[in-house]
Amino acid sequence: MGTSDKSKQFDSKRWGESVKKLWGGRFSKQPEDWVDEFGASIPFDQQLASQDIKGSLAHAKMLFQCGIIEKSSYENIKNGLIDLQRQEHAGELHYSAEYEDIHLNLEKLLTDKIGADGGKIHTARSRNDQVATDFHLFVKEETIQIIEHVEELQKSLLTLAEKHIQTILPGYTHLQRAQPVSLAHHLLAYFWMLERDKERLTDSLKRTDIMPLGAGALAGTTFPIDRMMTMEELGFSKKYLNSLDAVSDRDFAIECCSIASILMMHLSRFCEELILWSSEEFAFIEISDSFTTGSSMMPQKKNPDMAELVRGKTGRVYGSLVSLITLMKGLPLAYNKDMQEDKEPVFDTVKTVKGCLSIMTGMVNELKVNEERMQEAVNKDFSNATELADYLAKKGVPFREAHELVGQIVLHCIHNGCFLLDVSLDEYKQWCSLIENDLFKVLSPKHAVERRNSEGGTGFQAVRNQLEAAQSLLAISSI
Ligand code: ARG
Predict the structure, then answer these.
(1) Is 295 labeled as catalytic in the residue annotation?
(2) How far is Cα of residue 439 from the mean position of the Cα atoms in its chain?
(3) 128-372, superfamily in CATH?
């Protein structure tokens, strides 16, 4: 029996009819299917297919240019990968759990397509720097998309705010009516929250836009690779300078989920207000039919489902963050298989966040504001009590005394079922002789809002200035 026959016999004994693993050389027994399935990430990491092919194209080009593989092999690999890319876009690729993950599946598909040259793609590379590179590319692309989505929502808020500088509604603290505010001012508060989210996302790119490729499994490689070449080819701004760090860092993924969590918290707070404001009790707004649903039993109902869902989905984004930071906390350097669990939370997070942002933008674009109802609310409350206290303070009454006095007047009104504007001048004079007829103008909610023109305040002019600042910020950032 010749050598080749022997190895053939050996092969079939070890693997029987089943698929030979790409890493199978050292093994004499192969895992059963159910174990393969447990270990496989292909059901979800196929989402990284296009990044993986992109990474391989850059790697192969560099291998050729550095003289590590011959031109013909490179051409073969390149054409094979381009074809795989086309098939991937067309949804024509079929993956298998036997090949564990997207990296091995694509290598197998490439080898099936172009023959032995396919096996050269993994020269000077490990799946550890490969997966990290794919993941960096993915998170970078998604972060840019999320920034664009945030900006869309900001634009919608600005458009709505522009129409409602002079729309007045009660401002709340403790969910108790506090002082009247301009609706534009209220909406712009969310604009600034989103602006901070955008800043965080943009800043995180510094740490996402960095290339691990070339780190090998953990220690670098003996091949004369050129990392600058792959870095530029893949559009990264920087590369990791420590191979151990390169393959074991998942900070960028955690940061993505952490920023997403804060962003979702903002959306959730906004939703909470939309839900409250669209209730019969408030009736400040009406959410468009396109974003609400009916009840299967109660025909009169119009439920703010989409706003509730965004509020609800905030929980799963927090969950992803917690699962990621928990996943990483006990891992020794460098790569550990635990890290395969890093993908689903990130995939789920970016999909959820983009979905929620689109829903919010649609909801804001179609929001109907009930201005009369808001005005009615400020007319029938005590949110002008501070005006009265300030009025007295300006007449020389120490503010603390003025506060006490106004508190007593409010209590008197509550007992008599009226509001501050219903009290006559004679009655006021009994409380304090300094009060004159000019008080009634001061007590009007519009007047109260109009005059708060301190920088960042709710006064109409201050809000106009704020809106302008927001608009120019958006114009600059979208250039
Ligand atoms: N599927 C793996 C993951 O997502 C790829 C890296 C595997 N590396 C290894 N040495 N087993 O983490």
Answers:
(1) yes
(2) 48
(3) Fumarase/aspartase (Central domain) (1.20.200.10)
For each successive 10 residues of the chain (479 residues), what is the average pLDDT?
37 46 78 90 97 98 98 98 98 94 98 97 98 98 98 98 97 94 98 98 98 98 98 98 98 98 98 97 95 79 93 98 98 98 98 98 98 94 90 95 96 95 94 94 91 94 97 77
* 124 C-alpha to ligand 1 centroid (Å): 16
CA of 320 to the centre of ligand 1 (A): 20
Verify whether residue 174 is a known catalytic residue: yes
Catalytic residue among 12, 290, 295, 472: 295
Q: Is the CB of 340 within 6 Å of ligand 1?
A: yes
Closest residue by Cα to atom 12, ligand 1, is: 340
Give the C-alpha separation, 271 to 435, whole Å: 43
Q: Which atom of ligand 1 is nearest to the CA of 100?
A: 1
Cα gap 55→61, rounded to integer Å = 10
Query: Does the CB atom of residue 131 touch ligand 1 within 6 A?
Result: yes
Cβ of 337 below 6 Å from ligand 1:
yes
* Domain 377-477: CATH architecture, name and number where available: Orthogonal Bundle (1.10)
User: Which tens digit of pLDDT belongs to each residue from 253-292?
Assistant: 999 999 999 999 999 999 999 999 999 999 999 999 898 8
Instruction: Label residues 4-34 b or e (16+ Cβ within 10 Å = b).
Output: eeeeeeeeeeebeeeeebbeeeeeeebeeee
127 lines ligand 1 (CB under 6 A): yes
* Alpha helical stretches, state H, 164-250: 183-208, 227-234, 243-248
Distance CA 337, CA 335 (A): 7
Name the percent of the chain in helix, strand, coil, to the closest 5: 70, 5, 25
pLDDT tens sequence across 434-453: 999 999 999 999 998 998 99
9-56 tens-digit pLDDT: 333 333 444 567 777 777 878 888 899 999 999 999 999 999 999 999
Confirm or reject: Cβ of 108 under 6 Å from ligand 1: no
| pTM for the structure as a whole | 0.91
28, 94, 174, 424: which is the annotated catalytic residue? 174
Q: Which CATH class is domain 3-123?
A: mainly alpha
Provide the residue ranges of all domains of the chain, joining segments of one domain with +. Answer: 3-123, 128-372, 377-477
